Amino acid sequence: PAEDQARVAEIKQLLKQHNAVLVAHYYTDDAIQQLAEETGGCVADSLEMARFGARHDATTLVVAGVRFMGETAKILSPEKRVLMPTLEATCSLDIGCPADEFSAFCDAHPDRTVVVYANTSAAVKARADWVVTSSIAVEVIEHLQAKGEKILWAPDKHLGGYIQKKTGADMLMWDGACIVHEEFKAKGVEDLKRLYPDAAVLVHPESPEPVVRLADVAGSTSQLINAAKTLPNEQLIVATDRGIFFKMQQAVPEKMLFEAPTAGNGATCRSCAHCPWMAMNALDNLAGALREGSGEIQVGSELRQQALKPLERMLNFNT
Ligand code: CIZ
Ligand code: SF4
């Protein structure tokens, strides 16, 4: 629509004017991902978003995603201004893991190495020994297990269970879940697979175990896009936020992509394969943030110092 085109033109001009770059997550709307591509920004998973923002020489990062991604950008680049289209965009994993309760849980298990998923607040990261994203979670836990360490894992129980099964590590688990991935149903995937027997099943391990069990490839968003390219299958059933289809279809234009079913038996779901918080990022509030300098992320310096340590461990791991 003409309105969107005008917004896009305005945002392009504002990005230049403010020496800003757009860092967008795979789960944001197509229009935002496209804009990030067209303006020399990035579309990525949370690990690559963090790396890209820290390395880029822009003085303002506009992070289109959810709150923890903006916080991570600020922690890694305190000298940069970090803006988000809205500060309301959070994550059920972050909400389900309040820092005070989490800290008490850690205090009760002082013998365990604390590993938290990136989808957490700065205050929770500050309490952790390690931060990981789903791209490198398995490798980090394997590394710690080889040193004989026992793990306290938070907050995603499905991802934690997947890693535990893969590595055999001793992991004490926080009880958190992603409201988007939790809705995928094994029965729905099996039904779809009967219709398309040659399809490969790609699953993000934030999904429930019965769905992960059906996966030909389980992995992070980047790993799933990669699998879409390398697998010979012409049809792919994908269990992760449908925002990923923008980049995945670009990577394999000739293949057929199917959303994994979220509801068996006509039941309704809360999120239907699209994160309600990612969806809060729009062209309008993105333009507004740049125009008005609104949605700025602040992280206090003491908190920043503490959260930086486990984040740097992640970024320096294996690189
Ligand atoms: O589910 C999410 O929020 C994911 C996959 C984040 C990320 O990029 O690691
Ligand atoms: Fe959080 Fe799930 Fe949304 Fe990712 S998709 S931001 S894990 S609620």
TrEMBL record:
List the keywords (alphabetical): 4Fe-4S, Cytoplasm, Iron, Iron-sulfur, Metal-binding, Pyridine nucleotide biosynthesis, Transferase
A biological process term (GO) from this entry: 'de novo' NAD+ biosynthetic process from L-aspartate
| Name of this protein | Quinolinate synthase
Cofactor names from the entry are: [4Fe-4S] cluster
The enzyme's E.C. designation: 2.5.1.72
Q: Which GO terms describe its molecular function?
A: 4 iron, 4 sulfur cluster binding; metal ion binding; quinolinate synthetase A activity
PANTHER family xrefs:
QUINOLINATE SYNTHASE, CHLOROPLASTIC, QUINOLINATE SYNTHETASE A
The organism's lineage is:
Bacteria, Pseudomonadati, Pseudomonadota, Gammaproteobacteria, Oceanospirillales
Q: In which pathway does it act?
A: Cofactor biosynthesis; NAD(+) biosynthesis; quinolinate from iminoaspartate: step 1/1
Q: Name one GO cellular component term.
A: cytosol
Class in the EC hierarchy, top level? transferase
